[in-house]
Design goal:
Chain lengths: 289, 252, 290
Amino acid sequence: MFRIAIVIISLLVGAGAVRADDRIGVVASFSILGDFVRNVGGDRVAVTTLVGPTGDVHVYTPSPRDAKRVADARLVVVNGLGLEGWLPRLVQSSGGKATIVTATKGVKTRKLGSEADPHGWQSVTNAKVYVSNIRDALVAADPAGAAAYRANADAYLDKLDALDREVRDAAAKIPAAARKVISSHDAFGYFADSYDIAFIAPQGVSTESEVSARDVARIITQIRASKIPAVFLENISDPRLIQRIAAETGARIGGTLYSDSLTAENGDAPTYIDMVRHNIRTLTSALAN
Amino acid sequence: MAAQLQFNDLTLGYDRHPAVHHLSGEIAAGALLAVVGPNGAGKSTLFRGIVGILKPLAGSIGRGGVDIRDIAYLPQSADIDRSFPISVFDFVGTGLWRTSGSFGGVGKAARPKIANALAAVGLSGFENRNIGTLSGGQTQRMLFARVLLQDARVIVLDEPFNAVDARTTADLVTLIGRWHDEGRTVIAALHDMELVRSSFPETLLLARTAVAWGRTDEVLTTANQAEARRMCEAFDDGAAACTAAASPARAA
Amino acid sequence: MLLYQALIAPFSDFEFMRRALAGIVALSLGGAPIGVFLMLRRMSLVGDAMAHAILPGAAIGFLLSGLNLFAMTFGGLIAGFAVAILAGVVSRVTELKEDASLAAFYLVSLALGVTIVSMKGTNIDLLHVLFGNILAMDDQTLLVIAFNATLTLFVLAVIYRPLVIECVDPLFLRTVSRAGAPAHLAFMALVVINLVNGFHALGTLLAVGLMILPAGIAKFWARDITGMMLVAVGSAMLSGYFGLVLSFFTRVPSGPAIILIAALIYIVSLLFGRAGGVVRKVFTGRHLEA
């Protein structure tokens, strides 16, 4: 009788406390996913991100440290849709027992060339699906925290709704004729579809593929013909090409748009919401006049 | 006569093994000296030392005030890149290096000189051929022509008649005789004893050290040559460091 | 007229095409002669080696000034010089030949570079950032490669004679002159400058490609060095021109398009070249009287 009481008491004590080493280890493939996981998981999760700010998630080379992180994690959250070509082999070779969560499950995808466009997070509606998937995965991995996860997710989803409205309102203010931009990274397809701004890019999806003279000539002709007002730099690929196109067409260089990763803490886009806000503000200020 | 080259207890070699061992002596200015000896006797090594390509292991070489770069050298097997796209004319023309300098070109005045040098070695008509199209003997003659153009006070020839036919050999020996008449110092390593006896007044019989050195008929005796042959060709891998004192200077 | 549309219009209509052509001309004038010498000295692969060797210099530039192209290029130049000079010195002073010496140093350099980059913790492909694109020639870049070409031609003219002798009979040069080593080092310096600035302006493929392929083409048409250099420069410019036209009308990226045209010319030269072309060797015609 006494022994059973001890066991029951220790179980209750254990269940009540959430000590630091009880946190769920989650590895996110890149910074945007990391941000989502942190918002849903709160202090029940310990998140590490593989590709940090200024890294390039398309062409990342994992280090042995990354393999260790993956091996120790409970969940590995990835984008999927071909974004992280380097990831399956990393997970396999690290030999860990983590569950892989594909954040884009159920997202309505669009095509980019002949393949699916992986940049789903660019539309806030899709981001909400990401968050739901992450919430469900966390609940499945750690049922004890289900209530916390659901509460966090709901709060965050509300914020995302507000963000979505903000972006739509701002986009609506741009005159229809001026709703087109050139960006050097073909990452804004979902954003373009959701908010009705045309993004035209001189390069393909990945930062690796090279541009032909015909592509550049087409872009210049298009800018001239459609009178596109602004050209945007992307923080990863070659800015000189953008500058050349801008110089030759008279389009304005509109600042930096962030597509594939967040910035550092003191930068323009340390969280996802900050990133989207920064992007829409930069767009409107370049296009509005 | 003044000494043009002095060997002071000279030791030259590779990897600490001596190929020329404690050689002392002088070569007078204007001498016409044949250097003979068995294979591996150190003839080529000595010549490399004279033109400054090989630094002595011990001892020194005095050059009587002549700049190393004014010594013309015909190596035994010229390591030239025969696939290089250069004509015989231009190649031989580099012999005028000392007068035209590193960056000067081959001027109008030089062209007849080059043509004459080619004629002297029997290579007229070869001016525009690429060097890679020449036979071994023709290459040798081309190198000889370059030496001609160098117009040097001291001329060192390492087995210059190796691949050359008899008629050309005779022509080249005549050239050497002319150099001697002009007062130049000529040193040649040779294997053909007939040629040495007929054309070279002085001989150095070398077998790591000087076996005999002086007038050709006094040097090329059977006894001397037998002694030279006794030299061991291979380097001794187990040899200790040499502590020998300088050997006595040659009796003139 | 159709020919005008195809060959002239792209350049008259678009400034970036004119600039690209200017870049090609400058690169051909500087790089192609260097390429001829590299080929003759059997150092054709040095371009690729150098592309990796400059990494630690670029990495240090990155550490000190972030993604500043000027700092990284400058660092790359320093690293390139260091590797080239060390390799040259080692091959002159020891028994090791130039290619082995260069291989050793560039590998060390590359390893150093990777270490430095990973110490900083980011994972940017630095070299990718460093390498430019011929369609993005801004004023500064054009100036740099034009300056390159001028410097190269001038220095080459000055070191021409000792360089040639050093290639064909290095022992002779050693016995008559002290110009051999300085000429060689100057040449290596030119190689580094042309390569690094070429990478910066046009990317590795073009910078190395327009050095080496034209040299190969030249070998099948000329029997003397001057002729080779002229053919090399000419075929580099031709490849650039038609490559740009090709890239203008198709999806082929500009760099590869130019190299493909150069390769085409190379194959034609290989088969039909006057100096050693395969077809001429097989069908020599009747032999001569004398």
